[in-house]
Every structure is written in C-alpha cells, then in structure tokens.
Amino acid sequence: MGRPEAYPGLMPPRRRLSRRTLLGAAAAACAAAALGVWRWLNEPGGPAWSPALTATAPGPVADATLATLVAAARTVIGRPIDPAHYAEYFRWRAEHLPGYRTLYERFAARIDRDARRTAGCAFAGCGTAAQARVLRPASRARAPRSVLDAAWMAAGGRAWAAYDRFILDEALALFAVTDAWILTGYEGWPGTPRGLDRYRRAPR
Amino acid sequence: MPRADRPAVAIVGSGIAGAAIAYLLTARGHRVEIFERGPAYPYPHVPQFEDRFFHRYDNPAYRLPSDLQGLTVSGTYGGDVDHERHMVIGGTATHWAGITLRMMPEDFRTKTLYGFGDDWPIGYDDLEPYYGRAEALLGVSGTDADNPFAPRRSRPFPLPPFELGYEDRILAARLRAAGIVLHTTPQAATRAAYGDRPGCQNFGACDVCPIGVRYSPNYHLACAVATGRCVIHRETSVRRIVAGPTGGRAASLVYRPNGAAADREFRAPAIVLAGGAIENARLLLLSDRDRHPDGVPLTDVVGRRLTFHHLWSGSLRYAERMMPGRLGRWTGQSHQFLRPPTRGRHGAVKVEFSANIVPWSEDAAAGARSGAEVLERFAPLTMLRNVTLHSETAPEPGRTVTLSSARDRFGDPYAHVHYNLSQFDTATYAYGQGLFDRFAKATGAVDAQLRGIETVYSGGHHMGTCRMGRDAGDGAVDSFGAVHGCPNLFVVGASIFVGPAAVNPTLTIVALAIRTADYLARTL
What is the ipTM of this complex? Predict the structure, then answer.
C-alpha cells in the first residue's frame, strides 16, 4: 500500500483552522502555563521554595572566600557583629557538610564578580550600599511573585534561592542566637560562659 | 565464686536508671553488660554542644533510623511521643533539664487520701533514704530553706542552690505579697565543684552541657566501664526475654546488633529492663509466653496505665524588661499547690518559671530579612516569662502500650501507644488556669497567655505500664522491680510507678533504681 496521499478517498477532508481559533488556543495555552507557574511559585515546598544543596564533597575554603562570606553576612545583618564566629561557622560547614564548600565558592565568586562589574571593587572591599545592591537578587529569589520573576529564576536566578537559604538566612539565624543577645542587652549569649553573679544583678 | 568471675547481669537500656544500676553494681565488684539500641553519644557532650551552638547542626549520628525507632499512636495526645525519647547511649536523660524533686508523702497514697489512682506498696519513708542517695549520686544543688512545702529529709542537699535571679526576686516579692511562695529549684547540676565535676559556668546550654555540670547518665556509664566490669553493646536491639526450663526465671535475652543478620543469645543470672515505660512494656509483651513457648509469664497489668506527666505552658508579659535567660538553668518555682484542699477532684500542680528562651530567639530569625528585623522580634521576648504548669493525672487502665501492627527492621511489632485526656485532666487544667491567672495578677503581668488543654506535653516523662504492686493481680512487679512470677527479671525506671505526681519524676526513678541495685547486690 502506498502513502495515504496517493489515495485521496481514504483521507478525511482537510480543515483549515481560522486565525481566531489559533489565537484562542495560544491564549489558553499561555493562561494554563501562567497558572502552572503561579501554582509552582506558591506551592509550599515547591521547587521555587525548596532550593537544595548539591552533594559535593566538603573541604576547606580559602580565607578570601571566608572573608567574602562574612562580609555578606555583615551586609544582610546590618548591625554590629563579632565576625569571628560567623567565619568559624562557615568554615566548619564547608569542611564537614556536603555541598557547602561548592556553594560558598560559587557565591563568593558570583558576588565578587557582580561587585566588580557594578562598583569596581571586590565585594568585601565595597561600600555598604554597593554590597546591598549586589545581594538584592536574594530577596527576589526568596519571594518570586510574578511571571517575570519566574522567568528570571528559570534563567539562573534559582542559584540565588540557594544562596539566600543556605548562606544569608543561616547568617541571620546565627545572629539571632549570638550578637542579637548582646544588642538586646544581655551580657553574653548562650554557649559562652557567663558566670553565676551577673544574672543576680539588675540588667544593664 | 568471686563476684568478678560470676556471669554478668544484663541491663537493657543505658538511660538514667540503667546507668545507675550499672554503676552501683560494678562499684561493688559485679559484672554487667548493657544492651542499648541507640548509637554512641560522646561525654562530656562537647561535640553535641559545638554542633548545637557553634555549627547549628542536627547531627544524624545521634539518631536511630526510622526502622529501629518508631511507634504508632492513637487517642487525643498531640505530642510526638516517639521523639520525646532519645535512644542513644545515656538515653533520654542525656537531654533532660536536670530538675530533681522528691515526690510528696501524699503522692504515694492518693487512693486512701484523695480517692483517685492507687496507693503504692511503699511510702515516702521507705524511699526517703534513697532520695538522699540519689541526690548525692547525681550531684543535686538545692535547698529547702526557702521552700516551706518540701517533704522532710534526713540529709542536706549535696550542693548549695542556684539562687533566684534578679527578676525572679522581683516576681517572688510580688507573689509573696499575694500569699504565694516562689522558691529555688533543686537540680542535678553542680552549683559548685562536686567530685570531678566542675562548678557551673552558666553556658546556658544545659541540655548539652559541655563540662558535665548538668548530670548525664554517661558520666556513671563511663565510671562503670572504667572498672573493667561493664561492657556496653551499643546499636544492639534486644528482641525478647527467654524463660528458663521451669518457666519461673528469666534465663537469657535474645538480641541482635542492629546491622547483623542473625540473633544471638546472652545468658544472665538477672536481667534488668531499663528502656523506659514504653519500650519496657513492649519488650515484655514481645516476650510473653503467649507468643513464645519459652516466653515469660505475664499478667494483663503489663502495658496498662501508661501515664504521662502533664505540662501546659504559658507566657506572662510585663511592662518592664525581665531579661529571661541570663541564667541558663531553671530558677523559681512554687510547690505550694502540690497538696491543694480540692485534690482528688483534680490533680496537684507545680508552677515553674522557665528561663530558657534560646528556642524563642531562634524563632526570631525565621523569615527575617535583616538584623533589624531580628532585633525587633527579639525585643518583646525580654519582657516575657515562660510559666509551665506541671500536673498529675489519675492513672487509667485504658491508656495503654500494646503491640502495633507496624514492625521494625527485624519484623518485631513496634509499640502502640493509646492515650486520651480524661475529665480529671480537664478539671486539673481548669485548676491550673486559675493558678496561672493568680500568678499573672499577683506579678503585675500586662498580658497572660496559657496554651490550650490540647497542647498538653509529657515532658518526655512516660510512666506506668509495669507498675509495682503487692501481687500479680495488683502490679507487674514488686517494689524492688522484680517481675511477679519471675524473680530474676527486673523492671526499673518510671515504668514501675503506681501513679505520677505533679513533680518531675527523675529523682524518684533514680531513688528506686538505687533501691533495686541494693536488692540485686544482696541477692545475686
């Protein structure tokens, strides 16, 4: 048997779709896609909200990388901090937990590159305003609300979601249990020996 | 035969009761072997302390896989019963607050005095010397000088108390004006150096104290191992107890290292179950003669009258800064309501001010975008005091541990826990709410929030299930923990409590364990 086209009687009559039908179908497809993106964005635990670490091998990170991480922590916290324990925190995680070293190195390289491009300085050496500008995508990645945000996430912005969750969020969490205590009026934070005299005296 | 050449006593579970028995028996020359399902848990708890406070890391090495730790639940209790237990070397008391209170003499006679629960076969006077020894063993800091409600004692506390903090003293003065006594809290934490344990430096990290100030069972486990007469089989599950040919004695236990393919058997002159109220009942039920011809004869008392300590939390907000958490340990509490005149219509209540705000400060960072936001959320915490109502309940046969249809790695049924609140508990909550309101008013709180009755929490204090009684019809074990009808099989811990009390159970657990250890040492 030859090709069906060779036997016109076997073929159903060909219908031509009108431009209106095509446009309607395209609009419906776009609406469905937008709805899907919207649901994806809003779904608790969905991909937009659950950045994951790639399980790369732990290992030491360079001092320069640590300095960049601490500078980023200082920027997002925006209050006086003791940088030593943030550096220790980042160092330990890089050396012990899968994924962190690679994430830290990529993040440090990324914000250094962005800082050089936008402000002409390495991130740690930039001014506060320039540093804050460089870190701004983290907020966008945390709460994508529009289709444009979704497109940005799909085009590479999701890396920022991981930076936000595993670096900046963690820095704020560390701040909450350390320096925040001092800034709130405590003599020391839990985990440091505070002695048994001061708690019996009036707080400062 | 010299004691060191005799077969070792088997202890199932390395928590605070098992550790005390291991320590006391090895100190007297006996040999013991401990079987612990959970993993190693370093002591002093420096790695755990660093993980928690410096690395903020929840180390999976200290957790059992879910096919080894599990249970099923029914009823209205909303807490996570399974994870209220810490199955590691040292057990749940590796994480405890360290509060060590004696039960009241009346707590042993609630049926006679108040018409609820049952009377214990022993009384406070029987246990009093053991309370003193338990306080010495754990290194308890405390005083009764400021607590007019404390039961009598025959020896002083080993260590001075943790004094009330600045804010506690302010609250205590306001409460005193309203006729309420707020006093210090006895606790197994060394206020000053005690033996080779240092004095407290107020790290505020009490559940993972890096210098061993807060007592951990691992301390005495290490002492026992150091004698050369204690072997600890970690990550090893005991599957059942085997009775001897005549059926009237326990002969051995069947166990399996968690990663092994086959069972092994360990013969022992005495077997001590120290795995907590839920696992002790489960192991006995797994060993029941109804399941195995060479099993242990059990009465239907086993698994019944599971009883939780009932805790409800609330917060009091003040107009001025209270700065909770300057001392990591607990300070003020009131035992004034442990013997209320209306007891019997409801349970007794202990009122406790907690200073631990570390979890609250952690919460301050959730969703924050800046340090300023964190501080904004943190500031109100300085004006709060957390208050916990610790209450008793009336034991009920319908609260049970049975065998579940779900099974563990080896095919053994998990425990099934069934627990409901009762009308007695509703009445106790209402009484506690009245106390909470009194405390709020007396201390000048500008806002008071007590969480609902449905938020009841056991504090990890699971009791009953193998209660002591005068005979097999009345209880699973006698007052020394020996199983009725199987005198060399012992149960220790809160499993054997006849009833709970409003006070924390741990000191009573240890006092009873010492009593059992004495009995074992005499009879082995």
Answer: 0.90
